[in-house]
Write a structure and sequence with these properties.
alpha/beta, GMP Synthetase, Chain A, domain 3, Rossmann fold, Helicase, Ruva Protein, domain 3, 4 domains, four-stranded mixed beta sheet, globular, binds adenosine-5'-diphosphate, binds magnesium ion
Length: about 475
């Protein structure tokens, strides 16, 4: 029986699925269509040039393996890049790209017809307004040049780069960049904006923190100028909304953002969003908004690995014209593994100390300074530490906190420990309860309330609490 392109590809997909993680499979393989099988040459259709490059760079060996198994040792893969830009005037177009035999694939320029630049007719826009110069609110220091690439940010960076080349014309719309604090989301989002401004001076780029957007909207409501607010945002060609987790539980703001989002997206405008967590973990967001976010690509940024941390430090040192011994750089990179922001902070404190003391920074000095620095960034105390501090103060054995005794002194120490754990750690009520012999969350709530009441009525107790709090604060600064 003659094999069809589709059946061969489906078999390949089975092999691939066993070899790549589910998220990658969904992102990079599900959108592929098998279009042609001619002898040993299978042609697959991908939605963008970037997509093709990404496959070749990261999945070439598994693709090759699957094809060999399904066809023959001489099997070859051809790509067809079909950009679905149905919202644009140009119809889909096709380029055929033969598989590279090695990993090294160089960018092939897209035909000029791909470059965006169309103007849309918008009944809302008051003539004359369109030419208004809108300040992008971008920080010129945040560029791709100053952004170090590593495994931790490769997908986000590459996708961001592709978007910057062809805003609105890739399948990454919106591009959602997510990850923890200080890992480089804002920097990357701004780099995209800056790059677009360089490449397309006529495009209106706007960077707006979600919080600012929210406040502007509230003002507009107060001033009866919601229409102006919407019109303003509809003028934007590239909208970068930073920290959209801020929209959580703000229904009206979400509505208006949804409205603006749709308008821009339909007009082929680019949206770039950042968030401190994955869209699927955003609570308090309307489903219709979340489903819009899924239209494009979500790419996460992780904590950089050791090598990337060294590269980041070196880049900053070079930019600031400073030199540090290699062992110092390694020491810092090794010990500061929380975020890029902390890495920068450590570097700054090293420099501050060395200029203060007029002393070269050697490993010994670095060790002293970094030890202090690490203390200040690990701001959170543990529940155990709190329990110990409280028990010491009241001369109670820490194990007693987990037992069932109703002795007054112990009940008091237990309740106070729970209260402090709630105030000084980010643990949930459930987790806190678990640290006290598996008590449930309502017991923790009750304890916190009891402590507050007691502080209001019992001056001596209040002073005890303050004493213990001082101790906790000292341990974290
Ligand atoms: P986030 O928005 O994720 O909280 P930022 O983008 O503000 O983080 O980054 C924090 C700091 O770290 C900034 O000064 C930024 O320039 C720097 N930074 C983050 N990632 C990188 C990187 N890959 N290369 C160079 N500097 C980086
Ligand atoms: Mg940020």
């Amino acid at each position: 029986m003659l094999k069809s392109a589709e059946s061969v590809w489906n078999e390949c997909l089975k092999i691939i699925q066993d070899n790549v993680n589910p998220q990658s499979f969904k992102t990079w393989f599900e959108p592929i269509k098998a279009v042609k099988l001619q002898g040993d040459v299978l042609t697959i259709q991908v939605p963008s040039q970037f997509f093709y490059e990404w496959l070749e760079e990261h999945y070439v060996s598994i693709l090759r393996k699957a094809l060999k198994r399904e066809l023959s040792n001489d099997a070859r893969l051809e790509y067809q890049v079909v950009v679905d830009n149905s919202s644009q005037k140009n119809g889909p177009f096709t380029v055929n790209i033969p598989t590279a035999t090695t990993n090294a694939v160089k960018t092939q320029e897209m035909p000029a017809s791909m470059v965006m630049g169309h103007q849309i007719k918008n009944p809302f826009i008051i003539p004359g307004l369109r030419k208004v110069n809108i300040d992008s609110q971008l920080n010129a220091a945040y560029t791709f040049d100053t952004y170090v690439e590593g495994d931790s940010n490769r997908l986000a960076r590459s996708a961001g780069y592709a978007v910057a080349q062809k805003p609105g014309a890739t399948s990454f719309n919106p591009l959602v960049i997510y990850g923890g604090v200080g890992l480089g989301k804002t920097h990357l989002a701004q780099a995209i904006g800056n790059q677009i401004k360089n490449l397309y001076p006529n495009k209106t780029v706007l960077f707006v923190p979600a919080e600012k957007f929210t406040n502007q909207f509230i003002d507009a409501l107060k001033n009866n100028s919601v229409n102006d607010f919407i019109h303003f945002y509809q003028l934007i060609d590239v909208l970068i909304a930073d920290d959209i987790q801020f929209f959580a539980n703000k229904d009206r703001t979400q509505d208006i953002f949804f409205h603006i989002f749709n308008h821009l997206h339909q007009s082929g405008k680019q949206l770039i969003l950042t968030s401190d967590r994955a869209p699927r973990d955003l609570e308090g967001m309307e489903e219709r908004l979340l489903s819009r976010f899924r239209w494009g690509l979500s790419a996460d940024i992780q904590v950089p690995d050791f090598e990337t941390r060294i590269a980041i430090l070196e880049k900053k040192m070079y930019a600031d014209g400073i030199e540090l011994p290699r062992d110092v750089v390694e020491f810092v990179a090794y010990n500061i593994s929380t975020s890029v922001r902390d890495l920068e902070g450590a570097l700054v404190s090293l420099l501050a100390q060395s200029s203060l003391n007029r002393k070269e920074i050697d490993l010994d000095l670095a060790k002293k300074i970094i030890k202090n620095f690490v203390k200040t960034i690990s701001r959170e105390v543990s529940i155990e530490f709190i329990q110990k501090a409280v028990c010491e103060f009241f001369s109670v054995q820490p194990e007693k906190l987990k037992e069932k005794t109703r002795k007054r002194a112990i009940v008091q120490a237990r309740q106070l420990s729970m209260y402090l754990a709630k105030s000084y750690t980010k643990n949930s009520l459930k987790v806190i309860g678990r640290h006290f012999g598996g008590r449930d969350h309502s017991t923790v709530i009750h304890s916190c309330q009891a402590v507050k009441d007691m502080m209001d009525t019992d001056k001596e107790f209040k002073e005890s609490v303050q004493e213990i709090e001082k101790k906790i604060q000292l341990s974290i600064t």
